[in-house]
Amino acid sequence: MAMRRASAAARALRRCSTRPLSSTARPLHSAAVDPPRRPPPSIDLADLEYEEYYYDDDEPRPSSARHQLSRHEREEISESVPPHLMKGEHLNLVRMPWALDAALQRYSIPRIKAAQAVRADGATHEPTIDDFVALRLDLSFGACRRAMHEVSCRLPDFTPARVLEFGAGLAPGCWAAHATWPATAAYVAVESNTTLRSTGESLALAAADAGDSPSVTWASSLGGEGGGKGGGEGGGEVGGGEGAGTAAYGEGAASGRRGEGVRGTFDLVMSAYALSALPGKGQCVALDALWERTAEGGVLVLIEQKLGAEAMSAARLQLLAKSDAHLLAPHPPNAHRAATEGELPWAGWLSRSPRSLMGAAKRSNVLEKVTSCHLLQNVEESVARQAHQVKLRRGRERRVVTEMFGYLLCLKVPEGSEIPADGMWGRRPYGRVITVPRKRRKHTLLDVLTPEGTLEPFVATRSKSNPRDYRYLRKVTQGDTVAMEMLIRKSA
After folding, report:
1. Distance of CA 216 to CAs 66, 165, 185, Å?
2. pLDDT at res. 44
3. Tens-place pLDDT, residues 7-16
4. What share of the chain is helix, strand, coil (3-state, %, to 5)?
5. What is the pLDDT of residue 190?
6. What angle do CA 281, 316, 333 make, to 5 degrees?
7. Taking a C-beta distance cutoff of 8 angstroms, is the pair 286, 167 a contact?
8. What percent of the chain has pLDDT over 70?
9. Which residues are CB-contacts of 315 (< 8 A; sequence separation ≥ 6)?
10. Nearest CA among 405, 375, 479 for reference residue 136
11. Among the four residues 338, 387, 404, 479, which has the most C-beta atoms within 10 Å?
């Protein structure tokens, strides 16, 4: 055995002495023997270089993993999205304008505290206008602010010069438009209720003394007796008109004198929680009147609660019949035309679980079951609500309240004119996320309303998405839009 080991070591020593020295040579004391090396296969480098780097545009790339694009090499779909919208169109929290809060502190809170002292006996009292201010102003402002933000997302170059709010109440829409576009100078609020109109004027005057506030001109109806001017300096007037009411807004009427109606056209026309309060025929007449007062290139905004779903459905179908109407939101543009033009009963589909929602979508078109996309908007309560519910608060605690509402945005485009590109996705087709996304470790599941008007499940994977696109998809929530090129259709 010792002789065999010595002979093997001698043969290894002779091999090392005849082999040229290299940095990878084993030390002499090692008894291991290198295995014989196979000659490398013959490779045509020219063919290999052509196969890896040169492809015609019409040729598909090889399916091998080494030829697939990496995550960073994939096209960035969200490149056109503005930086401040990289988390989606949603607003996490809406706060009241500080000038409006100061006006409530000065005008409404003393009245609320006086009413609380009277109600200390425990007897039942009728609700007053101060209760309405405390319980509805912040929620209405939050819904209008979210709708105005959606308009700015779809049309970033849109800045209205004149704003009309129909059924204004306390004019939360004017305040929301002023918060979105501070450069807007002319506001007209139409409110038939004398108590609401006088309270809105008083709040606007108190806010004007506190700081920046919209200059609002008040009117009792689109064609009836007008009101005075409230708010900041340099407001407008309401003048005589004809027919069912013509909207007018003149310049240089700081006196705020009373007139018979409003005339002219407006860049932004809105109606928050007002159409559903009218009878059936009155809704159609009012919507036609509001559309006539919308200028070319202007936007009509409709906001309703769940109880006003039928009015919203009828308004959507009525606008679809107009040749110069282009529906912007909440559904993708083509989804409105794909919907069945019939009576659409209301269904609280956004409150269902994703599983039951997908089961309903498989049976029929989702637009046959719903009328509009409802959103949930968080709003920081006003100081009036805080004072009204002081017994439910700890000290100066200000809670967050939630408003559930549906909305409709319609752009007035002249016949033959090109529809402007979307402010986030340009000309790319996009859909809207209608349920809360289900986030997993390396992928996200989304239920999307497609441009074809169908509700389908999609998945966004980390490995097949650009890093920036995937970050966007991880941050979107219910009500946001996504480009269809960023999604992968989920197999059944």
Report:
1. 65, 10, 9
2. 55
3. 665 666 566 5
4. 40, 20, 45
5. 94
6. 165
7. no
8. 68
9. 275, 283, 287, 302, 408
10. 405
11. 479
Closest CA to 138 of 103, 100, 190: 100
pLDDT band at 111 (very low <50, low <70, confident <90, very high): very high
User: Distance (Å, rounded) from C-alpha 19 to C-alpha 21?
Assistant: 6
pTM confidence score? 0.76
489, β-bridge pairs: 458
Q: Which of 160, 362, 175, 189 is nearest to 267 (CA)?
A: 160
Which residue from 476, 374, 425 is spatially nearest to 153, judged by alpha carbons? 425
Q: How many angstroms separate the CA atoms of 125 and 128, rounded?
A: 9
Question: Tens digit of pLDDT for each residue in 238-295?
Answer: 433 333 333 333 332 222 334 345 778 999 999 999 999 998 889 999 999 999 999 9
In contact, 266 and 188? CB cutoff 8 Å: yes
DSSP string, 110-145: HHHHHHHHHGGG-------HHHHHHHHHHHHHHHHH
- The H-or-E segment that residue 374 falls in is strand 374-380
CA-to-CA separations, 153 to 85, 105, 422, 423, in angstroms, rounded: 8, 33, 8, 6
> Predicted confidence band at 132 (pLDDT cuts at 50, 70, 90)?
very high
> What token pair was written down for 40?
């490398």
Q: Is the pLDDT of residue 163 over 90?
A: yes
For residue 374, give Cα distances in angstroms to 17, 214, 406, 442: 85, 28, 4, 29
